[in-house]
Fold these 2 entries.
Entry 1:
Amino acid sequence: MTTPVRFAYADTAASRTDGTRLAYLPITLSHGTHVLAVAGLLDTGSTVNVLPYPLGLQLGFVWEQQPTQVHLTGSLARLPARGVIVSGQVESFPPVELVFAWTQVTDVPMILGQVNFFMEFDVCFFRSQAAFEVNPKGQAH
Amino acid sequence: MLARADKLRLMQFLVVDLAQEEGIPLLSGDAEYPIWTPLHAFDAADTLLQMLQTHQGEP
């Protein structure tokens, strides 16, 4: 059993009202020798994880070498996306493999969605306290 | 006496004008507002899960 780690909601806009705070999770992504400490938006409405184009480049991915085409929806449907797999580590939890839709869109946050972030981690939101807790799957008391 | 349509146009003009003066952004029917969340992207989810399973099945 592991103890859930608690995080505070983060301010996302200059006007720091309660409504502008969102659940951004600090996470370390790695691919080969490339390691990147980023913050991903916990988005329970998102079917998939989404990796913005610049972050994919920083992780050493080459667009032309990714054969798996992914068709996204909404505003992300206007540009192509490719599937990529990285290792993701939250705090001191064991790293897990996360699969992302790597989009050519640049001005999108990194999104952690149902496939497969929420399949790997149990998350409990305490929105009234502007906090959330994360635990690897299968560790709940 | 203004017609009803003109009253509405006048109200709309005043609302937009006041909002601009106060620096309050208003939604515009001509603008696009991105929603990044890929809702119901089930084909993408299936593709990515299959990709992950294939990757994890590799020696």
Entry 2:
Amino acid sequence: MRSPRLSSINRSEKSLFPYLFSLLFLSAFLDSWWRAGVRPSAFFEKEGREHLWKFLSGMFPPDLSWNFLSLMFHPALETIQISVMGTFIAVVMGFPLGILGTRTFSVGGVLNEADVKGSLSRLVLRWTSYCMARGILSLFRSIPEFVWAFMFVRAVGLGAFSGVLAIGVAYGGMLGKVYSEIFEGVNYRPLEALQSTGANKLQIFFYGWLPQVLPNFVSYTLYRWECAVRASAILGLVGAGGLGTQIEISMRMFNFSEVLTILIILFFMVAGVDYLSAKVRAIL
Amino acid sequence: MNGINPEVERPHIPWPSHEPGGRPSLWTYSLLASLLFLFAWSYQGSEIRLSELFSREGGGQIVSYIKKLFPPDFSPPVLREAFHGAIETFAISFIGTLLALAIALSVVFFASRNLIYSGLLYEMEPRQGWKRTLRLIPYLCAKSLLNLLRTIPEMVWALIFVFLVGLGPFPGVLALGVHTGGVLGKLFGEVLEDVDPQPIESLQSTGANRLQILFYAILPQVLPQFISYTLYRWEVNIRVAAVLGFVGAGGLGQRIYIAINLFFGNQLLTLILFIYVLVTLVDYLSAYLRRKVI
Amino acid sequence: MNQYRLEKVTKVFDHRLVAVDEIDLRVQSGERAALIGPSGAGKTTLFRMLNCTLRPTAGKLWINGDEVVTLHGKRLRQVRRKIGTIYQQHNLVPRLKVAHNVLAGNLGQWSTVRSLISLVRPVDLEMAYRALRQVGIEEKIFTRTDELSGGQQQRVAIARVLIQDPEVILADEPVSSVDPSLATVIVKLLLEISERTRKTLLMNLHSVDLALAYFPRVIGIKNGKALFDLSPDKVSDSLLEELYSGHLPDNHENGLTDEESKALVYQ
């Protein structure tokens, strides 16, 4: 590689990119501002202030009556259950699809070179499974879990089951994509060494690939579980079980003290899950 | 013929102290047991009917429901509504994320331990109890505020704002902005706390005051990371913005709500397709911009 | 029948880097040979073709009568099982315990299910222990591999090859990252194993002294070509000079630096 000539260093590259970008950004900003109907004055108008006052005064004190709290006990537990099962299904789906969707596992890199060269049928097979895996993951994660939830509610009825399926599918897509990114960032030399003993792909995967990335893998999965707890709480808004159902009811009845109680419960649930996952992460 | 020399006596294998005789310790067993229990309890409670899922009834229901959605409705009025919904959703996510950035930036500098009361910038301060406590107050307030903002899910914020300012895309913007502001605030805070102390120390030794150090040493380090996180959150927000309309906050969500309640399955599929395309577009855009930043 | 037969074997990376250039080679079963030459000469690439990790770009390579390009899937793995490789570095998976890394030598003959079970509860631990005892570090059997020194890790890699029990041992600069005192020990250990069990041994060596002292056949590789293939008494000083001359790190004919070449080779 030759060293660059002096003159080419002095001449700075006048790229158009920053100007183009700022122009696009500004026009997008102005159009969006208008389109989204942004009115900061809404809070200062009479109606806005009235509503704000009604809201704040209605919230305190939170409804801590035994009646209400015992009513919330079961939905709260249900939310956790949905999050656990949903995350579990998400891992069951995302893990194999993520592996197949890793380029260096399916079609490229040192693990596939010898196997695939000189055999067109194998190459095509590998590429097909790779593209299909990526396509399915992309589909699953680009449709928000909310949309999945009400589709499942229409399909299998109200209740926690739809919530579990919705989270399983949507989070499965997310987990799978991130898993393949994690898998691609590995040191391939020990994998080559394992391959030289005659191991098959799955053996190489479990002996060399997964052990290298285990902390990242578990860490991200736990993080997704935390998100799942919050998502499970919300899915109830479409009837998929958990606290969400009650939030909707209380809001519609303008019973803000109940809403505040539910939010406090949610806060403690998330904090608990946060604490648990931090403990598990520390072990690794 | 094996390369290993045959031994006469049985070798004495040095098992690690916490696994005598090669059996997992009691602690491992109890951990496994509690995980299994958590799993079984959740299975039972979430009313999963896996057998039903694979049977003709359950799985069949899902398949027949999906079949009913095809083909997607591509008639001009529907397409126009979907298109407007998509652009509105984009607008909501765009302004919402920017609002979040603004909120996060205003609060995070108070919510970072090393900027407010401890660490390098304060090494030379006399350890006067009450002054230190005084500085703790804005820190605690900022941290709690961020916590509050991010614990309340966007949907709930949307419900609240719909109540406060009425229906339409505006409450969606606010809900996104406020919740994501909390999330970004926490992420930014972590970045600030991990900042490289070297430039700070060298600038401090020249006699610069704290504000100058902030602008010359800290911000240049953290700004690319901040922007990267914001772009990443935008990917999340576009999905949220698409569904906030369900509670009345505009965008595609609102149209989906109508389509469901009126049982317009084909329209629903069209809207879902639009969501898919919109989300994929924003994902690519965000990834592209993130590469440019880093 | 030759164990290895190479006819004009060539390997080109990315249409730019000719790592191996029309090498002809024949190796009999049970032979011991050392390959020497400057770094970047193509010795490692040659080995990676010999153990079926890479395919030649041109030329033919036969292993025990099978042409390598015809091997796929299960047949390919069976052939790989018969070849044990020791790399210069990164032989082992860092976060696994030594026991698992050693037992990985069995992967070629274990079913997938059995190998997964072994990760939870090691199968045939005694054999691993004996293999480690043979290389002198049996007390480290439950240590995490990344806590060992470079020399210890090389010995674990040798133990793994012992467990694998192949017909051929390829050692790619096994002692370059190791203390000189330990280097001789390791080279002699591998030679002893090869003699006792009649396994073919091919070793890439940086140290010309070790090659000439212990191997009955020395092959010199330069710029991807085999410069000479002789017994050590016939390797003259002038030959050695020719082998190692003209080697400058950042000035190759193809316009690539050493760094760039390495990146191409290791993708």
